[in-house]
Amino acid sequence: MRVLFAGTPAVAVPSLDALIEAGFEIVAVLTRPDAPTGRKRILTPSPVAARAAELGIDIIHASKVDAGTTERIASYEPDVAAIVAYGGLVPKAALGVPRQGWINLHFSLLPAWRGAAPVQRSVIAGDDITGAATFLLEEGLDTGPVFGTLTETVRPEDTAGDLLERLSRSGAILLAQTLSAVESGKAAPLPQQGDVTLAPKLTLDDGRLDWTQPALAINRRSRGVTPEPGAWTMLDGQRVKLEPVGLRPDIRDLAPGQVRVDGKNVLVGTGSHAVQLGRIQPAGKKMMPSADWARGLATPESVEFE
């Protein structure tokens, strides 16, 4: 079966590799154009583009699936398109190009967390279980019938990055199994059932920690926005980046945002009990252990996060 693969970030690479290992003919890869990365803003291929180049697969670079991109896709005469975190919508004209349609690997148990940030929103919401689903792409936002699912436990210490890395590997197997079922004619997608929740793309503002919230909510948010866009707070009018915070239910005498240095532990008050900082990146400096940061404070007892 001739497969067009669409994907952009590193979490899509395991799926590309799994389809090749399963014996599918990848006729081309659709990915977003090279993007500037790092402090020097050097134009860099997407992880999927880099992997496709290593494998000698033709690459279609496109920021959106417009008429020209659709024409290029059609020129490869794909039987099916597999899509994993491409980063753009597929319009109706392109949906009809592969005779078996577009099969999307989505990192949630649909219809939960439809949208661009399902894993991040799941962690922030405090889900105990999440998963992945393969479904037939339609014009609606992640609304198509589902071929298969898998589940994954959300561990107490999981960041969105941790969870997404595991789902990218188990989901790659699910995607290969789904395409095999489609090729053999045994696939039977079923309409989505259950409550719909939405997972819009995270913005920088989603990473700001509100110290008046309960500690558990702050812990979940700090994990859900790691690695991107990252957790942060304000201190003396400057943005300070934070890695995920731990829970300290034994400390309940700190006001929201109030900082206390207790030996090597840096504690911050919340709307319930305290949290403990992991690493911190003050404005203009590198990420460092919070204890090292605290040692540089002239009057740590007067520090308060906004």
Layout: helices, strands, pairs:
Blueprint: E1 2-7, H1 13-21, E2 25-31, E3 35-37, E4 42-44, H2 47-55, E5 59-61, H3 67-75, E6 80-84, H4 92-95, E7 102-106, H5 118-125, E8 129-136, E9 146-153, H6 160-184, H7 215-224, E10 231-235, E11 238-242, E12 246-248, E13 259-262, E14 265-268, E15 274-276, E16 279-281, E17 288-289, H8 290-295
Parallel strand pairs: 1-2, 1-6, 2-5, 6-7
Antiparallel strand pairs: 3-4, 7-8, 8-9, 10-11, 11-16, 12-15, 13-14, 14-15, 16-17
Helix pairs in contact: 1-6, 5-6, 5-7
What structural keywords apply?
alpha+beta, 306 residues, 7-stranded mixed β-sheet, 4-stranded antiparallel β-sheet
What does this structure look like?
The chain is of the alpha+beta class and 306 residues long. It contains eight helices and 17 strands. The chain has helices spanning 13-21, 47-55, 67-75, 92-95, 118-125, 160-184, 215-224, 290-295; strands spanning 2-7, 25-31, 35-37, 42-44, 59-61, 80-84, 102-106, 129-136, 146-153, 231-235, 238-242, 246-248, 259-262, 265-268, 274-276, 279-281, 288-289. The strands form four sheets. The chain has a seven-stranded mixed β-sheet, sandwiched between helices. Strands 10-11-16-17 form a four-stranded antiparallel β-sheet. A four-stranded antiparallel β-sheet has the order 12-15-14-13. A hairpin with a 2-residue loop joins β13 (259-262) and β14 (265-268). α1 (13-21) packs parallel to α6. The longest helix has 25 residues, at 160-184. 39% of the residues are buried. The model has no long low-confidence stretch (mean pLDDT 96).
